[in-house]
Write a structure and sequence with these properties.
This protein is mainly beta. Strands 18-19-25-24-21-22 form a 6-stranded mixed sheet, with no helix packed on it.
């Protein structure tokens, strides 16, 4: 009999809290292959493969051992183990494992990281009558495991037993085919092939069993070499190893996970099935037994960690439909058409690998496997079906479909109206439904109005080719519609015009608002305004310049030749208006001359009203007016005729502000208070930027000032000793109130 123990623990993280908790190496797998059987030397050569797994998302976690330390023991008849030697294989390749490899629907958290490392060792051993036992011990399991007691203090032993029968026949240990899923989805069906491959084709049975424990968290200097340390010493820490303690009664060896249906393993196929219904981390042990001709050769033990998490769906089954019930049942109604083209709107397409459409048609199952589908149904009735994405996988979603095949429905109508005189159009429904009952009518009169009556009438306010649409609905909610174009070009039954004025003074502007309907720019319009003028606009404006009483006429002709006309006798009355006019002298005014004479020159007027700067008023024919201020002055004259008509004329006169400045040609600074300073005089109000400078004949500046009221007293800068008699040069610059630049140059004679 050959017994082989293979253990595997996968990475862990706190699924219930979403926080990574892995601090240690998180699993391993060991198997062997027989390379050579030497019957002369009575030895066997095997290749032992150890695969270890750790969580690489936490850089503070335990690194891989390099080398790993394997203990080799002889299993004695009394059940004890004798230490033989150690093997120290070096660290081989380290590979990343895709957490979503077995579950394409899983959205993996960004901090999930799993690494796989390999160790290999070729060992030649004498064939003995007892079993060889190879073990690698390492702490620790994850503290967040849900189904065993004190998981953070429990390590694991990865072992393999080579029985005397295995040595004798140079047999190979079974190897598990698949890597268990890193993450599985809560409330989703679990289907995992946990079967093993045997090179000799021996029969294998499967069952849940207890995982093994080895090592602990003792980190002291002595503890590192003790059996409760993180790396137990294989010389001192020998098999047999104890097993984990499940949290009874919720979890047991044969029921290691919560589920509905329960998580089971098929004893023949090795398929693990069920539906996990609690999130968490669950250690699961699987033992396989290998038989040849009814004789037990191998007992292989593997333990691994199922991490059950909430999985956000990546695929959603959707299709184009008329309505949706409960988010997953799609209703499609067809009226008269038995062939239905189904449009698939499912997402996300990158995660969809297969489609399956199925309909039960009169007891026969019709199936299509394309993205979109077309089905032809035999007759009226309701047909049910499904559209399944990724059938048979966790990444699956189903849409339930209900197809209603109803009788056909056709929309139609007739209409009648007077083509020349505007009036309502009478509509009559002629629609037909196979159901025998039309329940709703929806009329759209070229976006000008609507109706829900069966046989409505409608009056258009504008002419044109009118597209009238009718949509009908029957008792099955089948719909049909039709559109017809109606040429509507009658003339108005009555010409209605609203003028802006009918009486006023010339020039009188009258705007004629044409309220007649229907009329548009395609109609021929002719106005006669009664003063010899005509117009062709729909609503024109016209100005009457002469006094009198005027009659109007309006003629309208439609594009199809319909005609209507109307006279408006003695409709507009106008009165002749005066013409206001005046003049004034002098024509130019300034701050020195502010008074002007104003004379009324208006015609056809018998009274008037003057207004100066909107405040001073007068009714005299002629008058003198003095302006208070400089600048533009507003003068308004209203001429009034005997018939009450008025005319207004507004003019502006500019009263220019003046500045004058005169300087003497000599001065006598002798202290007699007469002509003691060289200083100008004049009208200074409004003067800007004044500057006066005095220079001698050699070009030396003797005096300057920016104040026109300050003169030169004949001294240097008006201080110090008197300058001698003589002729001096002066220059004066300033600006007028309207910024005109003035420059005065000359000679000043100093006489003492």
């Amino acid at each position: 009999m050959r017994i082989v123990f293979i253990s595997l623990i996968f990475f862990s993280w706190a699924l219930t809290s979403g926080e990574l908790q892995a601090k240690h190496i998180i699993g391993g797998d060991m198997y062997y292959q027989c390379l050579k059987l030497d019957t002369v030397r009575h030895t066997i050569t095997i290749r032992v493969v150890l695969k270890m797994y750790r969580d690489c998302s936490n850089l503070q976690g335990a690194p891989y051992d390099d080398p790993a330390e394997l203990g080799i023991y002889e299993k004695l008849a009394n059940g004890t183990y004798r230490f033989i030697t150690t093997e120290t294989p070096g660290l081989g390749p380290v590979n990343l494992i895709d957490p979503a490899a077995n579950n394409p629907c899983l959205i993996v958290p960004p901090n999930v990281c799993v690494q796989e490392a390999s160790y290999e060792s070729v060992i030649t051993m004498p064939i003995i009558n007892n079993s060889y036992y190879i073990a690698y011990q390492r702490c620790c399991r994850n503290e967040t495991i849900s189904n065993i007691d004190d998981p953070g203090s429990a390590g694991a032993a990865f072992t393999i037993e080579i029985t005397p029968e295995a040595q004798k026949y140079c047999n190979n240990s079974p190897q598990f085919k698949n890597f268990p899923p890193v993450v599985i989805c809560v409330n989703y069906p679990l289907v995992f092939d946990h079967s093993a491959f045997d090179a000799e084709g021996d029969s294998i049975s499967y069952e849940f069993c207890n995982p093994l424990i080895a090592g602990g968290q003792d980190g002291s200097s002595n503890g590192m070499n003790s059996c409760v340390g993180v790396k137990p010493d294989p010389r001192n820490c020998r098999p047999p190893f104890s097993t984990v303690s499940f949290k009874n009664p919720v979890y047991t060896t044969t029921l290691p996970m919560a589920g509905n249906p329960l998580i089971r393993i098929d004893s023949i196929t090795g398929m693990i099935t069920g539906k996990p219904n609690i999130q968490g981390q669950f250690v699961v042990g699987v033992c396989i037994k290998e038989y040849r001709k009814g004789i037990l050769l191998t007992d292989t033990r593997r333990d691994f960690q199922f991490n059950v998490a909430f999985c956000e769906p990546k695929v959603f089954a959707k299709l184009q439909s008329d309505s949706l019930i409960n988010g997953s049942k799609f209703i499609i109604n067809s009226c008269g058409n038995r062939t239905i083209d189904f449009t698939n709107l499912s997402t996300d397409e990158q995660f969809i690998s297969s489609y399956q459409w199925t309909f039960d048609i009169n007891g026969m199952i019709d199936t299509i496997f394309t993205k979109d589908a077309r089905f032809t149904f035999p007759g009226l009735g309701t047909y049910t079906g499904t559209m399944i994405l990724n059938k048979g996988t966790n990444c699956s979603d189903t849409a339930d479909i209900s197809v209603n095949i109803y009788p056909a429905i056709n929309a139609g109508y007739t209409y009648s109206y007077d083509t020349c005189i505007a009036g309502p159009i009478l509509f009559k429904d002629k629609s037909i439904s196979g159901s025998g009952l039309i329940t709703n009518w929806n009329w759209d009169f070229a976006n000008a109005g609507k109706s829900v009556l069966e046989n409505p009438d409608f009056l258009f306010k504008t002419p044109g080719n009118k597209q009238v649409r009718l949509q009908v609905t029957d008792i099955n909610k089948c719909k049909a519609d039709t559109i017809a174009t109606i040429p509507y070009f009658p003339v108005p039954p009555l010409l209605i015009v609203d003028p802006s004025a009918v009486d006023g003074c010339t020039p009188l502007k009258v705007c004629f608002n044409n309220l007649s309907v229907p009329i548009d720019s395609t109609y021929k319009i002719l106005w006669n305004f009664g003063d010899g003028s005509t117009g062709n606009q729909i609503s024109p404006c016209h100005t009457y310049n002469e006094g009198g009483v005027y009659s109007l006429k309006l003629e309208v002709t439609s594009p199809i030749g319909c005609y209507i006309a109307r006279d408006y006798p003695a409709w507009i009355t106008t009165r002749k208006s005066p013409v206001a006019d005046f003049n004034f002298t002098p024509s130019q005014l300034s701050s020195l001359v502010r008074t002007a004479r104003f004379d009324d020159l208006s015609t056809n007027a018998n009274s008037r009203e003057w207004t100066f700067n909107d405040r001073d008023k007068s009714k005299l024919i002629s008058l003198d007016h003095t302006f208070r201020d400089t600048g533009l002055q507003k003068i308004s004259l209203i001429a009034i005729s005997i018939n009450g008509c008025r005319d207004t004329l507004i003019k502006y006169v500019d009263v220019e502000p003046k500045v004058t400045f005169y300087v003497p040609n000599a001065f006598t600074p002798n202290g007699d208070s007469s002509n003691d300073e060289f200083q100008g005089i004049g009208i200074l109000d409004g003067m800007k930027d004044f500057q006066m400078t005095i220079w001698d004949r050699w070009g030396m500046k003797l005096f300057s000032t920016n104040d026109p009221l300050v003169g030169w007293n004949g001294r240097l800068n008006n201080e110090g000793k008197d300058l001698p008699n003589g002729v001096y040069v002066f220059q004066i610059n300033y600006k007028t109130p309207r910024d005109k630049a003035i420059e005065i140059k000359g000679f000043a004679t100093l006489i003492r």
